[in-house]
Amino acid sequence: MKIPRRVVLGLIGTALFGRPARAADKIVGGTLGGQAPLWPFYVAARKGFFAGEDLDVKINFAQSGPAVAQQLTGGAFDVALSIGNDNAIHAIDKGAPLAIVRIIGNTAPYALIAKPELKTIADLKGKTISVGQANDITTVYFERMAAANGLKRADYDELVGGVAAARLAALKAGVADAAFVLPPLNFQANAAGYVTLGFSADYVKDLPFTGMVVRKSWAAANVPLAKRLLAATDKSIAWLTDDAHRGEAIEVLVTAARARQEDAEASYDLLRRIAYFEPSSKVSRGKLQNLIDAQRALGNADASLTVDRLVMPGVTELTD
Which of 39, 135, 139, 281 is deepest in the core (most CB within 10 A)? Predict the structure, then answer.
Protein backbone atom coordinates (compact mmCIF):
# COMPACT_ATOMS: atom_id res chain seq x y z
CA MET A 1 0.00 0.00 0.00
CA LYS A 2 1.43 3.39 -0.97
CA ILE A 3 1.32 5.92 1.85
CA PRO A 4 1.32 9.63 1.05
CA ARG A 5 4.40 11.61 2.00
CA ARG A 6 2.43 14.05 4.13
CA VAL A 7 -0.83 13.76 5.99
CA VAL A 8 -2.25 16.76 7.77
CA LEU A 9 -3.56 15.03 10.85
CA GLY A 10 -5.09 18.16 12.29
CA LEU A 11 -7.29 18.33 9.21
CA ILE A 12 -8.26 14.66 8.98
CA GLY A 13 -11.30 15.35 11.11
CA THR A 14 -12.46 17.99 8.63
CA ALA A 15 -11.48 16.39 5.35
CA LEU A 16 -12.64 12.87 6.12
CA PHE A 17 -15.15 13.09 8.93
CA GLY A 18 -16.73 16.51 8.67
CA ARG A 19 -15.33 17.91 11.91
CA PRO A 20 -14.30 21.58 12.05
CA ALA A 21 -10.59 22.32 12.43
CA ARG A 22 -10.08 24.10 15.76
CA ALA A 23 -6.36 23.66 16.22
CA ALA A 24 -4.28 26.77 16.81
CA ASP A 25 -0.66 25.81 17.47
CA LYS A 26 1.15 23.96 14.74
CA ILE A 27 3.42 20.96 15.33
CA VAL A 28 5.36 19.37 12.50
CA GLY A 29 5.77 15.69 13.16
CA GLY A 30 7.62 12.90 11.43
CA THR A 31 7.48 9.14 11.53
CA LEU A 32 7.75 6.02 9.44
CA GLY A 33 4.89 5.40 7.08
CA GLY A 34 2.51 2.93 8.61
CA GLN A 35 -0.92 1.94 9.77
CA ALA A 36 -1.46 0.43 13.21
CA PRO A 37 1.56 2.03 14.99
CA LEU A 38 0.12 5.47 14.18
CA TRP A 39 -3.39 4.57 15.30
CA PRO A 40 -3.44 6.91 18.34
CA PHE A 41 -2.63 9.90 16.13
CA TYR A 42 -5.36 9.11 13.62
CA VAL A 43 -7.73 8.77 16.56
CA ALA A 44 -6.52 12.05 18.07
CA ALA A 45 -7.49 13.81 14.85
CA ARG A 46 -10.82 12.01 14.41
CA LYS A 47 -12.02 12.34 18.00
CA GLY A 48 -10.81 15.89 18.52
CA PHE A 49 -8.08 15.18 21.08
CA PHE A 50 -5.61 17.34 19.17
CA ALA A 51 -8.17 20.08 18.68
CA GLY A 52 -9.10 19.87 22.36
CA GLU A 53 -5.51 20.84 23.17
CA ASP A 54 -5.52 23.57 20.48
CA LEU A 55 -3.10 21.65 18.29
CA ASP A 56 -2.71 21.44 14.54
CA VAL A 57 -0.48 18.39 14.05
CA LYS A 58 1.07 17.55 10.70
CA ILE A 59 2.99 14.41 9.91
CA ASN A 60 5.67 13.67 7.35
CA PHE A 61 6.61 10.10 6.48
CA ALA A 62 10.23 9.05 6.08
CA GLN A 63 11.59 5.84 4.62
CA SER A 64 13.36 4.55 7.73
CA GLY A 65 13.79 5.12 11.44
CA PRO A 66 17.29 6.56 11.01
CA ALA A 67 15.90 8.94 8.38
CA VAL A 68 13.26 10.17 10.83
CA ALA A 69 15.93 10.77 13.48
CA GLN A 70 18.17 12.55 10.97
CA GLN A 71 15.41 14.88 9.77
CA LEU A 72 14.30 15.57 13.33
CA THR A 73 17.88 16.46 14.25
CA GLY A 74 18.15 18.74 11.23
CA GLY A 75 15.01 20.68 12.11
CA ALA A 76 12.64 19.35 9.45
CA PHE A 77 10.39 18.05 12.25
CA ASP A 78 9.56 19.31 15.73
CA VAL A 79 8.78 15.84 17.00
CA ALA A 80 8.90 12.23 15.90
CA LEU A 81 5.47 11.02 16.92
CA SER A 82 6.50 7.36 16.86
CA ILE A 83 9.99 6.06 16.15
CA GLY A 84 11.91 2.97 17.18
CA ASN A 85 13.58 3.59 20.53
CA ASP A 86 16.72 1.99 19.15
CA ASN A 87 16.85 4.66 16.43
CA ALA A 88 16.50 7.41 19.03
CA ILE A 89 19.19 5.87 21.24
CA HIS A 90 21.62 5.53 18.34
CA ALA A 91 21.13 9.19 17.39
CA ILE A 92 21.45 10.48 20.96
CA ASP A 93 24.51 8.32 21.57
CA LYS A 94 26.15 9.96 18.56
CA GLY A 95 25.40 13.43 19.91
CA ALA A 96 22.07 14.32 18.30
CA PRO A 97 20.17 16.87 20.46
CA LEU A 98 17.10 14.68 20.80
CA ALA A 99 15.12 13.35 23.76
CA ILE A 100 12.56 10.61 24.38
CA VAL A 101 9.49 12.15 26.01
CA ARG A 102 7.03 9.26 25.91
CA ILE A 103 6.80 5.58 25.15
CA ILE A 104 4.23 4.79 22.45
CA GLY A 105 4.66 1.07 21.77
CA ASN A 106 5.40 -0.64 25.07
CA THR A 107 5.95 -4.08 23.55
CA ALA A 108 7.24 -5.13 20.15
CA PRO A 109 4.49 -6.61 17.92
CA TYR A 110 6.86 -8.79 15.89
CA ALA A 111 5.45 -12.06 14.64
CA LEU A 112 7.63 -15.04 13.77
CA ILE A 113 6.13 -16.62 10.67
CA ALA A 114 7.39 -19.75 8.97
CA LYS A 115 6.88 -22.37 6.31
CA PRO A 116 3.73 -24.45 6.85
CA GLU A 117 5.62 -27.61 7.79
CA LEU A 118 7.16 -25.92 10.85
CA LYS A 119 4.96 -26.10 13.92
CA THR A 120 6.97 -24.70 16.84
CA ILE A 121 9.92 -22.41 17.47
CA ALA A 122 11.92 -25.49 18.48
CA ASP A 123 11.46 -26.74 14.90
CA LEU A 124 13.79 -23.93 13.74
CA LYS A 125 16.84 -25.94 14.74
CA GLY A 126 19.07 -26.10 11.66
CA LYS A 127 16.91 -23.53 9.83
CA THR A 128 17.46 -20.01 8.50
CA ILE A 129 15.55 -17.07 9.98
CA SER A 130 15.32 -13.68 8.31
CA VAL A 131 15.82 -10.87 10.83
CA GLY A 132 16.65 -7.16 10.39
CA GLN A 133 20.04 -5.57 10.02
CA ALA A 134 23.17 -7.04 11.57
CA ASN A 135 23.22 -6.29 15.30
CA ASP A 136 19.82 -4.63 15.37
CA ILE A 137 17.08 -5.00 17.96
CA THR A 138 15.17 -7.65 16.00
CA THR A 139 17.95 -10.10 16.77
CA VAL A 140 17.50 -9.46 20.50
CA TYR A 141 13.79 -10.21 20.33
CA PHE A 142 14.24 -13.30 18.19
CA GLU A 143 17.15 -14.73 20.16
CA ARG A 144 15.21 -14.40 23.42
CA MET A 145 12.31 -16.26 21.84
CA ALA A 146 14.64 -18.95 20.55
CA ALA A 147 16.38 -19.36 23.92
CA ALA A 148 13.04 -19.71 25.69
CA ASN A 149 12.34 -22.65 23.39
CA GLY A 150 15.63 -24.43 23.99
CA LEU A 151 17.58 -23.14 20.99
CA LYS A 152 21.15 -21.90 21.26
CA ARG A 153 22.65 -19.36 18.87
CA ALA A 154 24.57 -22.12 17.08
CA ASP A 155 21.34 -24.01 16.36
CA TYR A 156 20.14 -21.73 13.56
CA ASP A 157 21.32 -19.24 10.95
CA GLU A 158 20.26 -15.60 10.87
CA LEU A 159 19.78 -13.98 7.49
CA VAL A 160 20.05 -10.19 7.36
CA GLY A 161 16.83 -9.23 5.63
CA GLY A 162 16.42 -5.48 6.11
CA VAL A 163 12.89 -4.14 6.51
CA ALA A 164 9.96 -6.41 7.37
CA ALA A 165 8.66 -6.56 3.80
CA ALA A 166 12.06 -7.75 2.59
CA ARG A 167 12.16 -10.38 5.33
CA LEU A 168 8.78 -11.68 4.23
CA ALA A 169 10.00 -11.74 0.63
CA ALA A 170 12.96 -13.90 1.69
CA LEU A 171 10.56 -16.39 3.24
CA LYS A 172 8.33 -16.46 0.17
CA ALA A 173 11.35 -16.94 -2.08
CA GLY A 174 12.47 -19.92 -0.04
CA VAL A 175 15.73 -18.23 0.99
CA ALA A 176 14.61 -18.32 4.63
CA ASP A 177 12.56 -20.86 6.57
CA ALA A 178 11.08 -18.24 8.88
CA ALA A 179 10.88 -14.46 9.07
CA PHE A 180 10.42 -11.84 11.75
CA VAL A 181 7.74 -9.39 10.54
CA LEU A 182 5.30 -6.75 11.75
CA PRO A 183 1.52 -6.47 11.33
CA PRO A 184 -0.21 -6.52 8.94
CA LEU A 185 2.37 -8.59 7.02
CA ASN A 186 1.92 -11.54 9.36
CA PHE A 187 -1.82 -11.63 8.73
CA GLN A 188 -1.27 -11.50 4.99
CA ALA A 189 1.30 -14.28 5.28
CA ASN A 190 -1.16 -16.40 7.26
CA ALA A 191 -3.74 -15.92 4.51
CA ALA A 192 -1.12 -17.19 2.03
CA GLY A 193 -0.59 -20.39 4.05
CA TYR A 194 2.38 -19.50 6.27
CA VAL A 195 2.14 -20.24 9.98
CA THR A 196 2.75 -18.09 13.05
CA LEU A 197 5.18 -19.67 15.51
CA GLY A 198 5.01 -16.94 18.12
CA PHE A 199 4.96 -13.26 19.00
CA SER A 200 7.87 -11.40 20.54
CA ALA A 201 5.56 -9.65 23.02
CA ASP A 202 4.85 -12.98 24.69
CA TYR A 203 8.56 -13.36 25.47
CA VAL A 204 10.03 -9.86 25.81
CA LYS A 205 8.22 -7.40 28.06
CA ASP A 206 11.04 -5.16 29.31
CA LEU A 207 12.15 -3.41 26.10
CA PRO A 208 9.77 -0.63 24.96
CA PHE A 209 9.47 -0.68 21.19
CA THR A 210 8.70 2.86 20.04
CA GLY A 211 8.69 6.31 21.55
CA MET A 212 7.83 9.94 20.96
CA VAL A 213 11.04 11.92 20.46
CA VAL A 214 11.57 15.68 20.37
CA ARG A 215 14.30 17.99 19.19
CA LYS A 216 15.54 19.51 22.44
CA SER A 217 15.75 23.09 21.19
CA TRP A 218 12.12 22.96 20.07
CA ALA A 219 10.92 21.36 23.30
CA ALA A 220 12.85 23.84 25.46
CA ALA A 221 11.15 26.72 23.65
CA ASN A 222 7.72 25.05 23.67
CA VAL A 223 7.35 23.17 26.96
CA PRO A 224 3.59 23.85 27.36
CA LEU A 225 3.00 22.86 23.74
CA ALA A 226 4.93 19.61 24.17
CA LYS A 227 2.93 18.81 27.30
CA ARG A 228 -0.34 19.44 25.45
CA LEU A 229 0.79 17.00 22.77
CA LEU A 230 1.45 14.42 25.48
CA ALA A 231 -1.95 15.09 27.03
CA ALA A 232 -3.70 14.62 23.67
CA THR A 233 -1.79 11.38 23.12
CA ASP A 234 -2.77 10.08 26.56
CA LYS A 235 -6.45 10.77 25.86
CA SER A 236 -6.26 9.22 22.42
CA ILE A 237 -4.65 6.01 23.67
CA ALA A 238 -7.19 5.76 26.50
CA TRP A 239 -10.00 5.98 23.94
CA LEU A 240 -8.33 3.56 21.52
CA THR A 241 -7.70 0.89 24.13
CA ASP A 242 -11.29 0.90 25.36
CA ASP A 243 -12.77 -2.23 23.76
CA ALA A 244 -16.13 -0.48 23.54
CA HIS A 245 -14.59 1.62 20.75
CA ARG A 246 -13.25 -1.33 18.73
CA GLY A 247 -15.58 -0.89 15.79
CA GLU A 248 -15.06 2.85 15.47
CA ALA A 249 -11.30 2.50 15.96
CA ILE A 250 -11.14 0.00 13.10
CA GLU A 251 -13.15 2.35 10.90
CA VAL A 252 -10.68 5.16 11.71
CA LEU A 253 -7.71 3.07 10.57
CA VAL A 254 -9.47 1.88 7.43
CA THR A 255 -10.45 5.42 6.47
CA ALA A 256 -7.45 7.46 7.59
CA ALA A 257 -4.67 4.96 6.80
CA ARG A 258 -6.40 3.09 3.97
CA ALA A 259 -5.92 -0.18 5.82
CA ARG A 260 -7.77 -3.28 4.70
CA GLN A 261 -10.75 -4.04 6.94
CA GLU A 262 -9.51 -7.52 7.82
CA ASP A 263 -6.00 -6.24 8.60
CA ALA A 264 -7.37 -3.47 10.82
CA GLU A 265 -9.54 -5.93 12.74
CA ALA A 266 -6.70 -8.40 13.25
CA SER A 267 -4.26 -5.61 14.18
CA TYR A 268 -6.62 -4.18 16.79
CA ASP A 269 -7.13 -7.55 18.45
CA LEU A 270 -3.39 -8.33 18.47
CA LEU A 271 -2.32 -4.93 19.80
CA ARG A 272 -4.94 -5.09 22.54
CA ARG A 273 -3.90 -8.63 23.51
CA ILE A 274 -0.24 -7.71 23.87
CA ALA A 275 -1.01 -4.32 25.51
CA TYR A 276 1.00 -2.59 22.81
CA PHE A 277 0.11 1.05 23.45
CA GLU A 278 1.60 2.56 26.59
CA PRO A 279 -1.29 4.25 28.46
CA SER A 280 0.75 6.80 30.41
CA SER A 281 3.20 9.55 29.52
CA LYS A 282 5.31 8.47 32.49
CA VAL A 283 8.53 6.83 31.30
CA SER A 284 10.17 4.01 33.23
CA ARG A 285 13.81 4.71 34.03
CA GLY A 286 14.37 0.98 34.42
CA LYS A 287 13.04 0.17 30.96
CA LEU A 288 15.17 2.89 29.37
CA GLN A 289 18.19 1.38 31.11
CA ASN A 290 17.20 -2.01 29.69
CA LEU A 291 17.22 -0.49 26.21
CA ILE A 292 20.67 1.00 26.79
CA ASP A 293 21.97 -2.34 28.06
CA ALA A 294 20.56 -4.15 25.02
CA GLN A 295 22.18 -1.67 22.64
CA ARG A 296 25.51 -1.95 24.45
CA ALA A 297 25.35 -5.73 24.13
CA LEU A 298 24.88 -5.28 20.38
CA GLY A 299 27.82 -2.86 20.24
CA ASN A 300 25.54 0.03 19.33
CA ALA A 301 25.92 2.30 22.38
CA ASP A 302 28.87 3.78 24.21
CA ALA A 303 29.55 2.93 27.83
CA SER A 304 29.04 6.61 28.74
CA LEU A 305 25.39 6.68 27.62
CA THR A 306 22.98 7.21 30.54
CA VAL A 307 19.22 7.40 30.97
CA ASP A 308 19.47 11.11 31.78
CA ARG A 309 20.97 11.76 28.33
CA LEU A 310 17.94 10.14 26.70
CA VAL A 311 15.28 12.36 28.26
CA MET A 312 14.16 16.02 28.41
CA PRO A 313 13.97 17.66 31.85
CA GLY A 314 10.69 19.46 32.29
CA VAL A 315 8.97 17.39 29.61
CA THR A 316 9.83 13.72 30.14
CA GLU A 317 8.22 12.44 33.34
CA LEU A 318 10.56 9.73 34.61
CA THR A 319 9.48 7.06 37.07
CA ASP A 320 11.38 4.22 38.68
Answer: 39
Question: Which residue range forms the structural domain that includes residue 154?
Answer: 111-202
Pairing assessment for the beta strands 157-160 and 111-114 based on DSSP bridges = unpaired
Which residues, 6 or more positions from 240, have their beta carbon under 8 angstroms from its beta carbon?
A: 39, 40, 43, 249, 277
Give how far Cα 233 sits from Cα of 57, 106, 110, 144, Å.
12, 14, 23, 31
Q: Has residue 59 got a pLDDT over 90?
A: no
Q: What is the mean pLDDT of residues 65-80?
A: 95
Nearest to 22 by CA among 31, 30, 11, 37: 11
* Among candidate residues 172, 117, 161, 169, the one with its CA nearest the CA of residue 139: 161
Do 189 and 239 lie in one domain? The reply is no
2: Cβ contacts below 8 Å, ≥ 6 apart: none
For the four alpha carbons of 252, 67, 114 and 125, in that order, the dihedral sign comes to negative
Contact 9, 236 (CB under 8 A): no
Torsion of the alpha carbons at 246, 248, 251 and 255, rounded to the nearest 10: -130
> Does residue 17 lie within any of the structural domains?
yes
**Residue 291 within a domain:** yes
Q: Could you give the 3-state DSSP secondary structure of residue 73?
A: helix
Inside any domain, residue 293: yes
Report residue 32's pLDDT band, with 50, 70 and 90 as the boundaries: confident
pTM over 0.70: yes
**Domain containing residue 214: CATH number:** 3.40.190.10
Measured CA to CA, the distance from residue 99 to residue 212 in angstroms comes to: 9
Is position 1 within any domain? no
